[in-house]
C-alpha cells in the first residue's frame, strides 16, 4: 500500500497541491494518494481523529488552521514550536509531529531568484503577522539580515512573532501607515497577508509611493501570480518575487519529511505557472 497524504484548510476545493505532490511521487517512483480535505473549524477534532483511524502518513495545513493545529498534534519540531504555527504534520509511528516548512521554502525560492540576496539585502520589512508570516520571520532570523521589521494592523499580534527572534536581528514593529511612510529604508519588502488575492485583485496592504528603486518586493500570494502590489512595484523600478515559488519549495520540504526523499521542485515550476495562469489555485 502506498502513502496516504493530504491537505486541510477552508476553502480548499480548487487546490493544486495534489497535482504538485503527484509530480513528486512520479519522479521518485513512490505510490501514494494526496487528497484535499475542506474542513470547518468545528469539525477539526473529529477529522483529526479520523486521520488517526485511517493511519495516514501525514498532511499539510493551510489557511486558517496553521496556528490552531498546535493544539492537536502530539509534539512539535523545535522550529514549529518557536514559530507558533504548523503547516506540515507527520505520522511517526502513531505519534503526530507538527513541522513548519513555510519559512525555509520561502528563503529557498527567494535565493533561487536573487543570488545576490546576502550582499544586497540589509533591511527587511515583513507585512502581516499570520501563520505564514510567523514561518517567514523565523527563517529570516536564521539568515544574516541585521534588520527585520514587522508592519501589521494590530501591534499585539505582531509582537507574537518575536518569540523566534534571534539576538543578531533588530526588529521594530510598525503600523501599516508608519511603514508606508518609511519604505525607502528597506531593501526587501515581503507581503504575507491575503490582501490582493483573487477575487480581490486590486487591493494592496500598503501604498508603494516611497519605495526606492531596485528594492525587492515579494508577495506570497500566487493567485493571481502578479498581484497589484507586484505590478505597482515593477512600474516603480523595483525587482519582484512571485509567491508560487514558495508554494513549490515548502511542498518539497514537506514531501521530504513524509517520505525521506529529497527532491528539486524547479523542474515543474513552469508547468505550475501555466496551471495558475489557467485559473486554478493552490
TrEMBL record:
Shikimate binds at residues 15-17, 62, 87, 102, 222, 250. InterPro entries: Aminoacid_DH-like_N_sf, NAD(P)-bd_dom_sf, SDH_C, Shikimate_DH, Shikimate_DH-bd_N, Shikimate_DH_fam, Shikm_DH/Glu-tRNA_Rdtase. GO terms for biological process: amino acid biosynthetic process; aromatic amino acid family biosynthetic process; chorismate biosynthetic process; shikimate metabolic process. Its EC number is 1.1.1.25. CDD domains: NAD_bind_Shikimate_DH. One of its GO terms (molecular function) is shikimate 3-dehydrogenase (NADP+) activity. Residues 121-195 form the Quinate/shikimate 5-dehydrogenase/glutamyl-tRNA reductase domain. Involved in the biosynthesis of the chorismate, which leads to the biosynthesis of aromatic amino acids. Catalyzes the reversible NADPH linked reduction of 3-dehydroshikimate (DHSA) to yield shikimate (SA). Belongs to the shikimate dehydrogenase family. This is Shikimate dehydrogenase (NADP(+)). The gene is aroE.
